[in-house]
């Protein structure tokens, strides 16, 4: 992360380190807010319309009234001032600052709106993109509306911390029936007998933007894809396993809970999708020029 990212805090551009929020902010007290993370490639926001549609949906699901069009203007302006070429855009809107009551505050509370632009000093996931990463499995302890991109991420943070302590890149979240829902901050895909498998969209998972793109890329590569879950005990039967996400892009997983996936090397379908992803990024950039 660059030393002090540029932020837009409630419409004012400032260094992120100077942005301040009241302790009565409902995001701070209750986790009452939603967020988005977009990737910046060559100074351009990637899949902007898709991320902002999901953001509108998240806001709508928790009844926060916010002018996303205005945020888009701020986002583009802050990005252009930042000069960041490779990095992330973080957007968060909370229900605002109000006396603490569990019910939503009545009348006139303005949402608190944060955008900041984080430049990469190095490629996230570095060598794992090539060699593949490892994961652990943990029980999915999250709430029942994981399709809303809420800032309530305690269960995700605990899972990610467990993975880090085990020297792994990700924790796969397993439901009470053994189904692999998703990662702590990624979507999960398996490959079996030449077909790609991934959990169908439901309140149990985030509708990943990269997941959506990879679904389309698989189609254009002629690789069959079934929205069908697999269980933790079926991982041994998979030929390949990979993660997708805004920062993870397409990331091979080669070991889970210490056991190799197939031969323990990234597989050909994952490699093909990694290439298709890179080609798609290059193609989208050529269209913005
Ligand atoms: N995380 N599942 C979860 C629980 C996530 O938090 C994310 C993204 C994904 C992948 O979604 P997308 O392809 O839209 O990035 C799946 C972001 C990057 C984060 O919290 O930083």
Protein model, in words:
This protein is an alpha+beta fold and 289 residues long. The protein folds into 2 domains: 6-119, Aminotransferase class 4, branched-chain amino acid transferase, N-terminal domain (D-amino Acid Aminotransferase, Chain A, domain 1), CATH 3.30.470; 126-286, D-amino Acid Aminotransferase, subunit A, domain 2 (D-amino Acid Aminotransferase, Chain A, domain 2), CATH 3.20.10.10. 29% of the residues lie in helices and 27% in strands. The protein has 7 helices and 15 strands. The strands form 2 sheets. Strands 7, 8, 9, 10, 11, 12, 13, 14 and 15 form a 9-stranded mixed β-sheet that branches. Helix 6 packs across helix 7. The protein is globular and about 55 Å long. The mean pLDDT is 97. Residues 37, 156, 182, 185-187, 206, 208-211, 244-247 line the site of N-(5'-phosphopyridoxyl)-D-alanine.
């Amino acid at each position: 992360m660059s030393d002090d990212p540029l932020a837009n805090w409630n419409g004012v551009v400032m260094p992120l380190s100077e942005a301040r929020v009241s302790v009565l902010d409902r995001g701070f007290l209750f986790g009452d807010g939603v967020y988005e993370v977009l990737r910046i490639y060559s100074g351009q926001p990637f899949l902007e319309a898709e991320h902002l549609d999901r953001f509108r949906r998240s806001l709508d699901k928790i009844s926060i009234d916010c002018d996303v069009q205005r945020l888009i203007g701020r986002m583009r302006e802050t990005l252009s001032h930042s000069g960041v070429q490779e990095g992330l855009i973080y957007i968060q809107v909370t229900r605002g600052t109000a006396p603490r009551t569990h019910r939503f505050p009545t009348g006139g509370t303005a949402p608190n709106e944060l955008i900041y632009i984080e430049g990469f000093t190095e490629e996230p996931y570095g060598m794992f993109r090539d060699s593949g990463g490892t994961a652990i499995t943990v029980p999915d302890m999250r709430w029942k509306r994981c399709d809303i991109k809420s800032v309530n991420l305690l269960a995700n943070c605990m899972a990610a911390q467990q993975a880090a302590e085990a020297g792994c890149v990700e924790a796969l979240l397993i439901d009470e029936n053994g189904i692999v829902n998703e990662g702590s901050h990624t979507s999960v895909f398996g490959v079996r007998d030449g077909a790609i498998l991934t959990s169908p969209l439901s309140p149990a998972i985030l509708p990943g933007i990269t997941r959506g793109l990879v679904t389309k890329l698989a189609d254009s590569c002629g690789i069959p894809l079934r929205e069908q879950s697999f269980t933790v005990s079926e991982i041994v039967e998979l030929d390949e396993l990979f993660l997708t996400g805004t920062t993870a892009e397409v990331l091979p997983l080669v070991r889970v809970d210490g056991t190799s996936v197939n031969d323990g090397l990234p597989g050909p379908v994952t490699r093909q999708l990694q290439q298709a992803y890179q080609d798609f990024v290059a193609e989208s950039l050529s269209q913005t020029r």
